Every structure is written in structure tokens, then in C-alpha cells.
Amino acid sequence: QVQLAESGGGLVQPGGSLRLSCAASGFTFGTYRMYWVRQAPGKGLEWVSMVRTGGYITYADSVRGRFTMSRDNAKNTVYLEMNNLKPEDTGVYYCNGRDHWGQGTQVTVSS
Question: Which of 76, 82, 84 is nearest to 105 (CA)?
Fold first, then answer.
């Protein structure tokens, strides 16, 4: 049974930082691409970043230079380090792998 569990969200002031984690189980983690996707209030899903099995990473233009995605295959976990957060980064952040979704973690950027 595939399971993805995000954690690390919270309330942060503009310019602050958060680190999200996504723990995966139920599949051979190291052989799948992993994604971070977010949904702002009242808006659709927005792709944030992707890491390939070999470690190559791509980012949406809106987060490039501020967010860093990584994966630890030994821990079956992906991370999203978010710096210089802006109010427009507010939303629910989901990880996706093997076509499965986690429950999401809320990130709120507000003063």
C-alpha cells in the first residue's frame, strides 16, 4: 500500500523559512520521480518541483532560487527547503510519487 505523509508546514512571516518533509512507503522509492505540488486558496494545483531518480531537479519559475528540493533514498523521504517565503507561497503543499498523493501540509506566509 503506497503511502505519502507530508509534514513541516506552519505559519511563517514573509522572508522566513520552512522545511517540508514527505515520508514514503509501500513502493520502491528510489526508482520513482517525486514531485512537490501546491494549491493556493481558491486556486488550482501548481507544480513546484520534481526530482528524478538520478537526482536531477527542476523547479517552477515562481520558486527557483528560493526553494531547494532533495531526496534521501535511504530514508524514503523527499524534502523541500523553502527560503525567503512570500505571501503568495501560501497554500497546501502535497508530495506526489508513483501517481499517489499525500494528505498535504499547510503553509501560511503572513505578517
Answer: 82
| pLDDT tens per residue across span 91-108 | 999 999 999 999 999 999
Q: Cβ(90)–Cβ(10) under 8 Å?
A: no
Task: Say how far residue 102 (Cα) sits from the centre of its chain.
Answer: 10
Closest by CA to 97, choosing from 76, 66, 68, is: 76
pLDDT > 70 in the chain, percent: 100
